[in-house]
Amino acid sequence: MPIVSKLKVVMADRDISVNELSEKVGRSAVNLSHLRCNRSKGIRISLLEDLCRELHCQPGDLLVYEPPAREEQDWPSRRVSPRRLSSSFL
Fold it and tell me: Residue 51's closest CA among 6, 86, 3?
């Protein structure tokens, strides 16, 4: 997953539990736990705002982009010249 949550690290730095944070931001502990463990498919801006307010951080402290390893990318590792492609592809 290219976008990775660093919520677990920020929470550990602030010495706050999921339950404490849940009460402060008014969201379920399950929702925060999914985000903390990188099981979320998305995040609402309002939740990101609430987390930043309570944890005194910036969005970039909570979410980072980590590109996939080269073998996980879905494009070829080397370019194929057009001459090597069969005519049915052109």
Answer: 6
User: Which residues are within 8 A (CB) of 8 and not within 5 positions of it... i.e. 6 or more apart?
Assistant: 36, 37
- Residue count of the chain, please give it: 90
Sequential pLDDT tens for the chain (90 residues): 689 999 999 999 999 999 999 999 999 999 999 999 999 999 999 999 999 999 999 999 999 999 887 765 555 555 555 565 555 555
- Distance, CA of 38 to CA of 8 (rounded, Å): 10
Query: How does DSSP classify residue 74?
Result: S
Is the pTM above the cut of 0.70?
A: yes
Residue 30 CA to residue 4 CA, distance in Å, equals 18
Q: Whole-angstrom Cα distance, residue 85 to residue 40? A: 40
